[in-house]
């Protein structure tokens, strides 16, 4: 195809897809059926992982719950069964350990079957300024929040590719889109998770595996306990999110094959600003939104909450 023809094609498609996106603001997207799907959630023992499991419970899926905490995982399984889940399988897995991920993944494939919806949700936060953070915690953050995603993909993607069917979900963070003072290692891990998920999504498309869908989730602070103590400066513009609301939005995004989910909606505007405004104005806005001091009052989750 020559330059003029290809450029014209891109212009026509730009108009078409912009119009489509605009209409979708008013017309709710159709939800796909997930009956019979095998949904694996990492970090299912509390917070968002647990609530996403409970949202999936009545939808006719089989659930595979992974967590480092057996107690938390068992409680999620009990609640999921109460909510109508047909089959729930719990596994203790330390996602920071590649060998453990591969070992438990093999066990799941033998005992339950091929995972068709993979939700990489397990996450940790150091909550210290970079120079105060111990090397071991920095490494652990990268291992859980980013590298675990590599190993779960390696374990479960081959079956999805063979069937040209599946869904890869990355529970990342708005801290994976914009740097935050006091969250350097966490931001690095979430930027990494997003870059990884986006890149493999493109690999699937170029390999013709259009039956494998992807969803990348980037929420602002959620009231799960992980970021206890953190304050938001303008709660009306950037509220601390309700976990049940976030879980509903995540499952809705999966059911409608939404590729990116940013929460709250103001995050879409902030991201556009970050990319188009002069850097100095960006800093002024960062200070205005409190991004320089989000972590000043961080306490994190009390051990007993876990
Ligand atoms: N809470 C927030 O404000 C917030 C905001 C944006 C993104 N997120 C992300 O959402 C995800 C869920 O966060 P949450 O708020 O529900 O946190 P949470 O602490 O309530 O839950 C995290 C779960 O992961 C498990 N886990 C931790 N390390 C693990 C490991 N090595 N192997 C297996 N499981 C492990 C924990 O036991 C826990 O059950 C995380 O990836 C987090 O980074 C959270």
UniProtKB/TrEMBL annotation:
Cited InterPro entries: NAD(P)-bd_dom_sf, Sc_DH/Rdtase_CS, SDR_fam
Molecular functions (GO terms): oxidoreductase activity, acting on the CH-OH group of donors, NAD or NADP as acceptor
Record keywords: Membrane, NAD, Oxidoreductase, Transmembrane, Transmembrane helix
CDD domains given in the database record: 17beta-HSDXI-like_SDR_c (cd05339)
Keyword Transmembrane recorded: yes
Ranges annotated as spanning the membrane: 276-295
Gene Ontology CC: lipid droplet
Coiled coil: none
Similarity comment: family membership: Belongs to the short-chain dehydrogenases/reductases (SDR) family.
PANTHER family: PKSB, SHORT CHAIN DEHYDROGENASE_REDUCTASE FAMILY 16C MEMBER 5
Protein name, per record: Epidermal retinol dehydrogenase 2-like
Organism the protein comes from: Scleropages formosus (Asian bonytongue)
Gene from which the chain derives: SDR16C5
